[in-house]
User: Which sequence fits this backbone?
């Protein structure tokens, strides 16, 4: 997720590579990752003493697995100047972040992977003592790759389940639709292209016309036609209920990670 956020900013020149430091898990990862980033970005291995330099940065992005949080916090040195710490860790509360990083001003961000193409969504929840200037700075960081919403922290689990896990759910739907088209006789490449275009076009229509999903469904479903026959099979298979349960399960897992 860190790369999903940072790489578009580097590509557009909104971040100076010379001002960017990053820590990777293993020394062996430094060379292949550095080849994919602009010259000037400094990479450190997590087990190197020089990695502590990243904690001097005024703006820090914490993008690790939640299970690694305690170990990373234990290695963090004392800081001065109350740097901003933006966490994208699922389910990790502001209260916990503030306990683990007492010298920081903490912010929770929940972005999603469409940020890679500038079409992301990000929710922000502010910790204590985040002044207006800092809020503007953080909003600008995420606004360059996503639509930004400010939400009360208790709403973040539902936001994450829909927007961060949602692309994976959509990908499963896309794969299944393409498989169906192949089964019906289309070549694989063409089936995938048409599936992607169908999903993108449907999303654009829903958004630009401000349609309720049921309105689009009814627009396409003629009496005794092909679409209603397919919708009947979806209902028989419980697809609607499965998607509802998938979002609820993701939200519950986010709460468990806290």
Assistant:
């Amino acid at each position: 997720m860190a790369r999903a956020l940072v790489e578009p900013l580097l590509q557009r020149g909104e971040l100076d590579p010379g001002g960017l430091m990053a820590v990777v898990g293993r020394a062996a990862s430094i060379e292949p990752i550095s080849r994919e980033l602009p010259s000037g970005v400094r990479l450190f291995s997590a087990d190197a003493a020089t990695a502590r330099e990243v904690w001097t940065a005024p703006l820090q992005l914490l993008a690790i697995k939640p299970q690694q949080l305690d170990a990373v916090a234990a290695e963090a040195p004392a800081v001065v100047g109350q740097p901003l710490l933006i966490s994208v860790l699922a389910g990790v509360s502001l209260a916990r972040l503030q306990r683990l990083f007492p010298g920081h001003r903490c912010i929770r961000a929940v972005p999603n992977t469409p940020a890679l193409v500038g079409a992301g969504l990000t929710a922000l929840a502010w910790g204590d003592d985040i002044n207006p200037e800092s809020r503007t700075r953080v909003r600008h960081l995420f606004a360059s790759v996503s639509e930004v919403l400010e939400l009360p922290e208790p709403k973040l689990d539902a936001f994450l389940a829909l927007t961060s896990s949602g692309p994976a759910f959509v990908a499963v739907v896309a794969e299944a639709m393409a498989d169906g088209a192949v089964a019906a006789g289309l070549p694989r490449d063409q089936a995938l292209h048409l599936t992607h275009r169908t999903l993108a076009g449907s999303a654009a229509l829903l958004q630009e016309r401000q349609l309720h999903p049921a309105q689009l469904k009814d627009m396409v479903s003629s009496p005794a036609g092909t679409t209603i026959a397919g919708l009947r099979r979806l209902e028989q298979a419980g697809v609607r209920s499965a998607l509802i349960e998938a979002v609820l399960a993701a939200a519950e897992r986010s709460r468990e990670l806290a």
Remarks:
- The beta strands are 21-24, 42-45, 59-62, 84-87, 105-111, 120-126, 146-150.
- The chain has eleven helices and seven strands.
- The chain has a mean pLDDT of 92.
